[in-house]
């Protein structure tokens, strides 16, 4: 295929993917679901499982193998900008001010990891079979633990806003805890990828050392330079954005060259990027990167959906899917609810926090794509985990509405406001959390 032909196919594929993803996301929102659910379904529909079934080789003509590297590259660039924004907005300082956030974060991270590892160790033969015969080693066990511990911060922010939970105690605690949980999960995923590296112990040690050098350079050299640069008088957003993009791409290149993934470098770049004097992200810098990433993210959903080959699943895989979904739901909802209740939150608020933490969505897809590219998981297990991510994310909205129905035990929409401690609606006084501390609103997460 000539260069002109590749460009023609890429442009056509972009038009189809962006249009269909936007339409599916809009439909999902009208149905009370976050757009990521519809966008992922659009990606699956564009893949071999559905589009590939049409006569005339429509799938092969629209997405020929020659353009797959280009589409994948665009998807990775979108992830760099998206994860940079996530890292830039991450604020772990909230742990110092809210006891419930600390409790919910640690339990919402540890219990799902234990259940993820536990189901693999209890059913090693079944997981090896569904993973195309790959060994059930320490790398795989740890990866499954991480896959069940993730909460999707951007999708969660969208759900909290759509469900009217912004500024409420459960919404704020869940949002803050999700950010901490993901911050704990990314380093563990990095360990999984490094541990899966082929080669001698010496090469593994060299990679670890180089990774630590990269982190130190970013913290001790790049960050001070960025602080100096951003504090220059008269510096406009037109100058800030190119510098941020350069740092994000360079850091992503470094971690990818070390055999990890671009997402780790992008996250690190976002973390070291200086904030405003009051500690909040600079919207003049954040908004353009969110817009660029948001425009290209449909390509990531398309690539993720195309990798889901439903006709490759076996009837016996449904049992493993049920086990995975059960462990995922129990781990998140149970850990979130019990730990919040232990921090003296009302039962209604505690259950809402657990349900909110069960949202996976986009962030889970990133973890699954990393595992698939690294060869830790195969297509069959990847498809099952994608279905798990869809089910847990799609269930969040209906469960929230069920918990907030009048007559089910506590205040309906009047969950206590975290800024005033007063109820925000009818029956607000019924569910006051004794001794609960006020917290501040977390910074808004980038839109999926």
Q: Can you describe what's shown?
A:
The protein is built from 17 helices and no strands. It is mostly helical and 448 residues long. The chain has helices at residues 3-30, 35-45, 58-62, 68-89, 99-122, 124-130, 138-149, 153-162, 169-195, 201-230, 237-257, 262-272, 283-306, 317-342, 347-357, 361-374, 379-403. The two termini are 34 Å apart. Helices cover 69% and strands 0% of the residues. It is globular and about 65 Å long.
Q: How is this structure best summarized?
A:
The protein is mostly helical. The chain has 17 helices and no strands.
What labels describe this entry?
448 residues, mainly alpha, disordered C terminus
Give the ordered list of helices and strands.
HHHHHHHHHHHHHHHHH
Sheet bearing the most strands, described? none
Q: Give the quaternary arrangement of the chains.
A: single chain
What's the overall average pLDDT, rounded? Answer: 81
Low-confidence stretches: 408-448
Secondary structure tally: strands: 0
Question: How much β-strand is present in the residues?
Answer: under 5%
Q: In terms of structural class, how would the helical and strand content be classed?
A: mainly alpha
Task: Count helical runs.
Answer: 17
Report the radius of gyration as a whole number of Å.
22 Å
> What is the share of helical residues?
55-70%
- First-last Cα distance: 34 Å
Outline: globular
Please give the structural blueprint:
Layout: H1 3-30, H2 35-45, H3 58-62, H4 68-89, H5 99-122, H6 124-130, H7 138-149, H8 153-162, H9 169-195, H10 201-230, H11 237-257, H12 262-272, H13 283-306, H14 317-342, H15 347-357, H16 361-374, H17 379-403
Helix pairs in contact: 1-2, 1-13, 2-13, 4-11, 4-12, 4-13, 5-7, 5-9, 5-14, 7-9, 8-9, 9-15, 10-11, 11-12, 11-13, 14-15, 14-17, 15-17, 16-17
């Amino acid at each position: 295929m000539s260069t002109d032909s590749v460009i023609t196919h890429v442009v056509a594929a972009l038009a189809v993917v962006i249009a269909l993803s936007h339409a599916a996301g809009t439909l999902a929102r009208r149905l009370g679901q976050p757009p990521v659910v519809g966008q992922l379904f659009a990606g699956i529909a564009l893949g071999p499982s559905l589009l590939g079934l049409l006569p005339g080789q429509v799938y092969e003509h629209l997405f020929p193998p020659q353009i797959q590297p280009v589409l994948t590259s665009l998807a990775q660039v979108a992830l760099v900008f998206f994860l940079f924004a996530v890292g830039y907005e991450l604020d772990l300082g909230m742990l110092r001010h809210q006891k419930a956030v600390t409790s919910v974060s640690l339990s919402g991270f540890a219990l799902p990891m234990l259940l993820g590892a536990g189901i693999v160790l209890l059913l090693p033969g079944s997981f090896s079979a569904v993973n195309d015969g790959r060994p059930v080693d320490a790398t795989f066990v740890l990866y499954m633990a991480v896959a069940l511990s993730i909460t999707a911060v951007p999708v969660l922010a969208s759900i909290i806003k759509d469900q009217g939970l912004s500024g409420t105690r459960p919404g704020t605690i869940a949002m803050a805890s999700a950010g901490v949980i993901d911050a704990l999960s990314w380093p563990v995923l990095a360990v999984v990828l490094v541990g899966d590296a082929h080669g001698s112990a010496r090469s593994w040690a060299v990679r670890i050392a180089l990774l630590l050098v990269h982190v130190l350079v970013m913290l001790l050299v790049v960050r001070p330079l960025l602080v100096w640069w951003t504090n220059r008088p008269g510096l406009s957003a037109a100058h800030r954005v190119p510098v941020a993009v350069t740092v994000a791409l360079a850091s992503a290149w470094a971690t990818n060259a070390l055999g990890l993934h671009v997402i780790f470098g992008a996250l690190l770049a976002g973390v070291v990027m200086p904030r405003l004097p009051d500690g909040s992200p600079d919207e003049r810098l954040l908004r353009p990167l969110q817009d660029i990433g948001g425009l290209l993210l449909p390509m990531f959903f398309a690539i993720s959906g195309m990798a889901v080959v439903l006709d490759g699943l076996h009837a016996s895989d449904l049992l493993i899917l049920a086990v995975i979904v059960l462990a995922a739901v129990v781990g998140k909802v149970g850990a979130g609810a019990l730990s919040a209740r232990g921090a003296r939150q009302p039962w209604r608020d505690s259950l809402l926090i657990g349900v909110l933490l069960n949202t996976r969505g986009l962030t889970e897809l990133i973890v699954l794509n990393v595992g698939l590219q690294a060869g830790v998981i195969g297509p069959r297990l990847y498809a099952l985990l994608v279905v798990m991510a869809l089910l847990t994310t799609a269930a969040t909205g209906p469960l929230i509405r069920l918990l907030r129905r009048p007559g089910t035990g506590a205040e309906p929409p009047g969950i206590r406001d975290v800024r005033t401690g007063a109820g925000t609606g009818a029956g607000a006084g019924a569910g006051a959390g004794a001794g609960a501390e006020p917290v501040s609103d977390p910074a808004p997460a980038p839109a999926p």
